Amino acid sequence: MWTPLPPEAPQPRRGWRDYALLLALACCWSSTYPLTKIGLGSIPPITFISARSLIAAAFLFAVLRVRGVRMPTDIKAWKLFAQQQTINSTLPFLLITWAQQYVPASNTVVLASTTPIFAFLITWGITRHEPATLLKLIGAILGLAGTALIIGLDALATLDANILAEIVILIATISFACATIFGLRLTDYDPMVVAAGSLLFGGMVLLPFALLIDHPWTLRPTTEALVATTAMGIVSSAFGLMLFYMCLTRLGTLTTNAQGYLRIPIGVGLSVVLLGEAVPANLALGLVLVMAGVAAMTVPRGHYRKWIDRLRGNKGG
């Protein structure tokens, strides 16, 4: 049984490399939106999720073999991999994929961006495994406001049109929040090992359902869909999940969740550059709010105290 870390547990010193990992994670997971849209064009959801998970697992197992790293053989480790993959990928991805049939993409992005707030509430009210400060709560709210502004305030007008599907998306975001907290149970393992084991379990669990429901041998996926599935497996799933566990180990739960807000401006930028979409009118202001929120959630309290002391010193001089 997992025991939460005590609130007074010392936090490791953070450097620029740790925040570079957070940015890299946001970049990997930002590609999820366009790649999923392309893949689902000719591949059903269950087959798509299973295929990308198995491709990612095969890629990571090949890398582990080159590195000479062996997978654990004990039941405890694989039980942890299975539990983590269920709440971090399999369950929330299936829920969101179903809900997107009824909820516009813009609304989905706004609703899914509530993950940092749920993570804060669970940390503050239940697990208390790390300090849930007022500054981090303010950061979570600022990030959500910036996300809503980037997507467009008019997107919020259609909320509640499909209340059941919207509730399902919120359940998925709560699952993501729990995954970032309970993922701390896996920090003793190599992040690549955790990612490989989790993805293999997720792909194998969904494979029988894909065979029974989708009959993948009858599908005629486009070349673009196959490329998108492979790219999503390697970039979003393999590298993304590996970076996720590295960030959890180095930065903790609440800071790792801040990447959810970074994904929004990065995803918008990719859409503008790669797909030629128009720049949202409120992009600049929304980006300022997002970055302010991320800063509030990620920069250690000691840094703020130093800046305040310097400002006071400059004013006094």
Automatic annotation (TrEMBL):
The keyword Phosphoprotein belongs to this UniProt entry's keyword annotation: no
Entry-linked Pfam families: EamA (PF00892)
Domain EamA: 20-151, 165-297
Domain of life from the UniProt record: Bacteria
Subcellular location: Membrane
Main localization, broad class: membrane
Keyword Glycosyltransferase: no
TM segment ranges: 42-64, 109-127, 134-157, 163-186, 193-213, 225-248, 282-300
InterPro entries, sorted: AA-Vitamin_Transporters, EamA_dom, EmrE-like
Protein name, entry field: EamA domain-containing protein
Species whose genome carries this gene: Bradyrhizobium jicamae
Lineage: Bacteria, Pseudomonadati, Pseudomonadota, Alphaproteobacteria, Hyphomicrobiales
